[in-house]
Amino acid sequence: MEKIILIGGGGHCKSCIDVIEQEGRFQIAGIIDKAQPIGTKVLGYEVIGSDDDLSEFAQTYRFALIAVGQIRSSDVRVRLFELAKNAGFELPIVISPRAYVSKHAQVKEGTIIMHDVLVNADANIGKNCIINSKALVEHDAIVEDNCHISTGAIINGGTVVRSNTFYGSNATSKEYVEASGFVKAGSVLK
Q1: What is the 8-class DSSP label of residue 70?
Q2: Which tens digit of pLDDT belongs to each residue from 24-43?
Q3: What CATH code is carried by the domain that includes residue 150?
Q4: What's the first-to-final CA gap in the chain, in angstroms?
Q5: Which of 84, 134, 159, 176 matches a 20 to 30 Å C-alpha distance to 39?
Q6: CA neighbours within 13 Å on the CB side: how many for 67?
Q7: Do residues 161 and 142 make contact, with C-beta atoms less than 8 angstroms apart?
Q8: What are the Cα distances from residue 128, in Å, to 93, 110, 112, 115, 137?
Q9: Which residue, among 28, 54, 51, has the nearest Cα to 41 in the 3D structure?
Q10: Which domain holds residue 83?
Q11: Is the CB of residue 84 less than 8 Å from the CB of residue 91?
């Protein structure tokens, strides 16, 4: 089984760990985090280094996933994604076995599809995205790079979610609209 490094050891990391364990494709080799001291553990996985050590770990491990969440800004996730790419890591697509992703949909590198997500036909999801638990991305929708689609969010057919957007829990779009920036939880986009 291939090994993977998780970059970020906070709350979102715990959800990523659960999805990776359920998917069964990767073995988690450790966590990189600057906030958590080296040697501490997150759900039993050790923090083995900080952001400064990424190049060193890329010599041993092929895969990494950005396990930092995103609310107000995508800046940290974007910076870490670029650091990981520049260090030489591959950033795989991780999909929960409890999610449904149409064979006609596209999902790009470094994106995680969490439990109970539904991604329908001809949806297109960019790089370094979080599609969080129970979200729906309908047919022909586009989620550009570095977006966080929160829990229970609904992106209806043909909607375009622009790069770096946070799309809050239970937010719902009408068909063929555009979303960008910070979309509050429970919003209705018309």
Answers
A1: -
A2: 999 999 999 987 789 999 99
A3: 2.160.10.10
A4: 46
A5: 84
A6: 30
A7: yes
A8: 9, 4, 8, 17, 16
A9: 28
A10: 2-92
A11: yes
